[in-house]
User: What shape does this take?
Amino acid sequence: MAKTALITGVTGQDGSYLSEFLLEKGYQVHGTIRRSSVDFRERIAHLEDNPAFHLHYADLSDSLSIMQVIAKVRPDEIYNLAAQSHVQVSFDCPEYTAQVDATGVLRILEAVRQCGLADKCRIYQASTSELYGKVEQVPQNEETPFHPYSPYAVAKLYGFWIVREYREAYNMFCCSGILFNHESERRGETFVTRKITLAAARIAQGKQDKLYLGNLSSMRDWGYARDYVECMWLILQNEKPEDFVIATGEQHSVRDFATLAFRYAGIELRWEGEGADEKGIDVKTGKVLVEVSPDFYRPTDVVNLWGDPSKARRELGWNPQKTSFEQLVRLMVDSDMEKVAIERADEHIKRNLVEYLEKGIVK
Ligand code: NAP
Ligand code: GDD
Assistant: This one.
């Protein structure tokens, strides 16, 4: 019998890769989506004709919709990926972030219990390296103390502990993957990596003059999202329900990421100045292409994330270095170079069409 999985947050970066992964494994995949006045299904559009792929409306802040979808689908596995996932936005919308990222997790766990699925259904919770926040140890592993440092991280910490509580109190198979940053061609455009690769592609093709960033010295352990969804699945196939750190074990700064991304887009940068005065300058033309803007500083910023994936490697047999940092930056830049080139071609075609219409060459 094919297994049935329910993915919340199926329209997101991870949800789209996980759907592909589970469909390939023969699962029936159910995803939750939200009503929006514009179409946000770009990442899963290619899956919508697949008869094993099903969509349902539900919102993590709405218990009834969660209960309804779980009662209907009766999944073998739930992957709770839905979240207000932007750390900076969590400072602007702290209460909503708590509704979704903290009590939203409780709604899923309780719905599974109320539907009588506690013994059958395995639950994966998308936890985060942001729990380590103002870090107390490097690199960070499953034993490192937490020190959440944003409303997002505090909400996710509740999610982490309520999962552990349900595991111990009700013997449920529920686990957290403590995932470090993972990126891809499908990463949201306001996260720093994608903001950089898109800007590098636009600047290289004359569509943007400058890129404004916040803290250039912030350090992250960046992996490839496509590799990380395999781990979510492995965590639920494990014999025992346990929490795992998922990371590459390598650390780079935002500045390193930008240097490499611009290089792959054909621009060599040199860095001058410090702090808010630091600038990234095109070595060839002397033009300033990257500047710091305090708009992108956070009230409290997490600056030293570096994961130790030894447990996942040892116990799940997962390879944390399948895609290197250089390969990740390269594939993101290549994808954005192509995207910008297509946009330019479209604009060119539209301009010609308007001209032909105005001149009466076409009607
Ligand atoms: P993402 O691209 O921002 O996707 C978030 C998903 O959650 C989207 O499908 C979004 O739906 C959905 N969502 C947001 N609010 C919701 C609500 N109230 N009810 C139902 N669905 C809601 O995030 P991601 O990068 O794929 O990350 C997936 C999960 O992993 C998140 O929980 C994130 O916090 C966590 N995480 C991510 C990383 C990372 O580096 N990517 C690292 C650690 C943990 P819409 O499309 O309708 O907005
Ligand atoms: N977004 C953004 N934009 N970040 C910037 C910028 C900028 O212009 N300039 C510098 N940064 C710095 C941030 O201050 C932060 O230290 C770092 O770049 C990474 O920021 P994001 O890419 O926004 O990711 P994040 O680390 O805050 O959060 C992501 O990773 C978490 C796992 O550690 C998200 O995916 C979270 O959902 C996830 O839990």
Notes: Residues 8-9, 11-15, 32, 34, 40, 59-61, 81-85, 100, 126, 128, 179, 181-182, 188 surround NAP (ligand 1) (CB under 6 Å).
